[in-house]
Target: 6-phosphogluconolactonase
Amino acid sequence: MTETAPGELLPVAFTAYEDRAALARALAAHVAEALRRRLATDGRAALAVSGGRTPTLFFETLSGAPLDWAKVSVTLVDERWVPETSDRSNAALVRAHLLRGPATAARFVPLYTGAPTPEEGLTAAHAAIADLPQPFAAVVLGMGDDAHTASFFPGADTLATAIDPRTDAKLITARAPAAGEPRITFTIGPLIGADALFLHIEGAGKKAVLDAAREPGDPMERPIRAILLHSPRPLDVLWCP
Ligand SMILES: O=C1O[C@H](COP(=O)(O)O)[C@@H](O)[C@H](O)[C@H]1O
Model:
């Protein structure tokens, strides 16, 4: 972990793209390359992606990548505890925009189990992810305007545990005032342990949020900072206006 002196910014590997399409092409190429590398050595590979509004074009671009998709498992870094019939479902987003074309052959492992609450579904969700090839070949994070990433929300009941790399559990539940609904999320360990870790953000507002999180401060207030602090290498950030 890198602690910073006052005034020192946490490092990132930042690339700016001219528009969403250029970013989507570059991110899809990086992710496909990471998956191919792992397929070449292990014969299987897993990818964890974010939900929300940002990734649709990236998903659609990646879905056409020439890959042995039948040997790829896809899961989510986090999920809102809603069924796939909800327009808030991250799983529904993945099915609609990523699991199409060549990527239809991928195995999808959703985190929502149908239990009434994420706390009641946690054991089954852990069982569902148990045979995902680990570490992830690639993880693509998003970030909200409040500096949350995955479901690491400021004020979340489990945040301190979720962002502690010593936490053993791979998944944890999360409830936070700003989260909308109860959540389930991968904890920080499996995310930063990925072969390739990306942050995909768009717009001047999110760049400003990231810049603020790079300043000295408490990751409990700006949870993306926990990723910056604990990632074994500077986080690969892909951004467009
Ligand atoms: O709730 C969530 O939000 C973040 C950011 O979403 P966006 O709509 O601002 O792109 C997302 O990364 C996360 O997976 C999702 O559950």
